[in-house]
Amino acid sequence: MTAETLRALHVPGRPLVLPNAWDADTARLVEEAGFPVVATSSVAVAAALGYPDGEKAPVEEMFAAAARIARAVSVPVTVDAEGGYRLTGAEFTQRLLATGAVGCNYEDTDHTAGGLRPVDEQAARLAVVRAAAGPDLVINARIDVFLGAPDERAALPEAIARARAYLAAGADCVYPILLRDTEVLAEFVAAVSPAAVNANGADFAALAGLGVARISLGAGLWRATRAWMAGHLKTLR
Q1: Tens digits of residue pLDDT in 149-170
Q2: Any keyword Lyase (predicted)?
Q3: Cβ(28)–Cβ(72) under 8 Å?
């Protein structure tokens, strides 16, 4: 499946819902349930490989997992690629596309130095990935300013500035991860309109009403699966 197929599914007000998978088997389940796209969750994939999240897993293993997922399904695959695994933009893009994926999350957290990358630096990184991929990759630019933010409204201006810079650099969609306040999210969507916005949440109708174009469940299914298995194991004992 092509990036254009994935890109066309990002429609404000009719969001693409992404139940995130972590291996080939769960990816097949997503496709069999009728979802048109398989997304991965970095924390779930890393855990399945035996590593913590935050680019602690070797890039070779993360990309190998992505390749197994892409081979297992016939729908487009978009990969949670964290901050790019310390690769140059060109190498990152080449290796990601080689997995068969046609989309990625690309976040502005610097996992080496800690904290957020300066907006100009992250926009430049995105521009390199866009130039290397051309139209063959749907880039979901993750904006991490709301992670742990005590006041989401206070963080909104920076989030909007980052979103506009990332879209100008070639991102297809912007993702203010874990922005929970619906009024703040509505203002964010309006500020970057008509660009596609990715959000988190279980109330799909409410998010659609805000004009969101994509909804990620993130690690939700993985956590629910682990919780069920942990409880069942206790029952078996």
Answers
A1: 999 999 999 999 999 999 999 9
A2: yes
A3: yes
The DSSP line for 120-172 is HHHHHHHHHHHHHHGGG-EEEEEE-TTTT-S-HHHHHHHHHHHHHHHHHTT-S
Specify the DSSP element, H or E, that contains 25.
helix 24-32
Indicate the fold that domain 3-236 takes in CATH. Answer: TIM Barrel (3.20.20)
Q: Where are the domains of the chain?
A: 3-236
CB of 133 closer than 8 Å to CB of 141: no
Q: Is the pLDDT of residue 1 over 80?
A: no
Encoded amino acid at 168, one letter: A
Quick check: helix, strand or coil at residue 38?
strand
- Annotate 166-194 with b (16+ C-beta within 10 A) or e (fewer): bbebbbbbbbbbbbeeeebbeebbebbee
Question: How far apart are alpha carbons 54 and 111 in whole angstroms?
Answer: 6
Query: What pLDDT, in 10s, does the model give residues 81-93?
Result: 999 999 999 999 9
Give the chain's length.
237
- Which of helix, strand or coil describes residue 104? strand
Quote the pTM value. 0.96
Q: Measuring CA to CA, which residue among 107, 86, 111, 78 is closest to residue 177?
A: 107
> Any residues with CB less than 8 A from the CB of 14 and at least 6 apart, and which?
208, 213
Structure tokens given for 139: 């880039």
